[in-house]
Amino acid sequence: MLQYAFKVIVSALIIVAVSELGKRSSFWGALLTSLPLTSLMAFIWIWRDTGNAEAIASLSHGIFWMVIAALPLFLILPTLLRNGVGFWSALGLSCLVTVGVYFALTWVLGRFGVRI
User: Fold this and answer.
1) Are 28 and 41 in contact (CB under 8 A)?
2) DSSP per-residue string spanning 57-114
């Protein structure tokens, strides 16, 4: 239980750090956010909990493909916001498009025999 609490605290601290840094500097907030900290923490925790290198390799492979699917969100959201669309509408639409891209990418990868 202590290990679970540690994971939650570390994760929360990273989210707070990103949001606070992002208020002060979009560059440093973006830099910190772009680091694969969540992935690295997951790799470390999976390794500590199971020692299963194949699970980490599979997760890393899946993350690679899913990052590609997530990238349109970071183009669509600022475009909508800069064109006067309200925040919640822009965020919702960006998320909907991103979910569609996730499904499309998963389907395309499946056609090529790539399993995530």
Assistant:
1) no
2) HHHHHHHHHHHHHHTTHHHHHHHHHHTT--HHHHHHHHHHHHHHHHHHHHHHHHHTT-
Q: Which residues contact 53 (CB under 8 A, 6 or more apart)?
A: 47
Judge contact between 41 and 9, C-beta under 8 A: no
68, 105 Cβ separation under 8 angstroms: yes
Q: Please, what is the Cα angle at 100 between 82 and 26, to 5 degrees?
A: 35
Among 54, 20, 13, CA closest to 37: 13
Task: Taking residues 61-90, report their average pLDDT.
Answer: 96
Rg (CA), the chain: 17
Q: Report yes or no: 80 and 93 within 8 Å, Cβ to Cβ.
A: yes
pLDDT in tens, 79-95: 999 999 999 999 999 99
